[in-house]
Sequence to fold (306 residues):
Amino acid sequence: MSENIQAYRLEINPKTAFGGKILGTTLFGQICWSIVERYGQNRLEELLNGYTENKPFLVVSDGFPENYLPLPILPSYFWQEQNIDRKELKKRKWLAVKNISESPDKWQLLAEKIDFGCEQNHLHNSINRQTASTGECQFAPYQSDEIWFSGNLDIYFLLDTEKFSASELEQVIRDISNIGYGRDASIGLGKFSIEEFVETDLFSRYAQGKDALTLASTCPQGLGFDADKSFYRVHTHFGRHGNLAVHGGNPFKKPVLMAETAAVLHREDGKCQNFVGQGISCVSQIYPNTVHQGYAPALWFDFISA
Fold:
């Protein structure tokens, strides 16, 4: 672990429904906008210097149930054989942090099914901002999905404290907690309180091995990972600008192909960083300096040789 990069764990308590899951990619972008609002555009540009050259000032994980991590994406033959229905096993997606010190092939047995959040469909009315009234066509209703999280969540941050201090990061997170995270924050979604923001030794304790477990979506293409010994699901991230940039004519970013959270990425050379992936540029047609978090916090193990 670089001496300038410190790991932090943020525990939050959701106060409202959320417009979607807490994703590291989305939260990183919102943090960038909050930095601009509090510290100015020049400060953000300074922080992003070197971002696409393996020098990120900040890497953000997804949000997980408190004290749990996602079970890695591995084929069924890897896990220790169990006399449990396979459908039941597939529901076990979360591993308690206290159990990751156990032999990795036992993790599925130790994993748990957690009611992480309840998705609900909510009905809204469209508002005509010129007339301050609902639209036509039977009030122009529309539906959107919302998530009510069932408990506190943990989010992990890797921060270059020479560039940006922990107190500064905590401040912009507090700003976000009041405004709301993600989609439909403008109508009251995504608000939370900060329960704890502390240093963690999780990444220094699991910094050796040939297999990285990713804690956010990542872009591992062309970085020397062994494709035959790596396991992940692929998704296409369709991002969009936030904050005032949504009014810039084209709020949508270019799609980015990513490996989903909980990927297992194998390499033989022993180069273990506390994050993997790369910063992605050229994702916006209207804001050329925009970057996308293709990095993910990583814990290192020996899954494949276990």
Remarks:
- Residues 5-301 form one domain.
- The radius of gyration is 20 Å.
- Residues 259 and 284 are 21 Å apart (CA to CA).
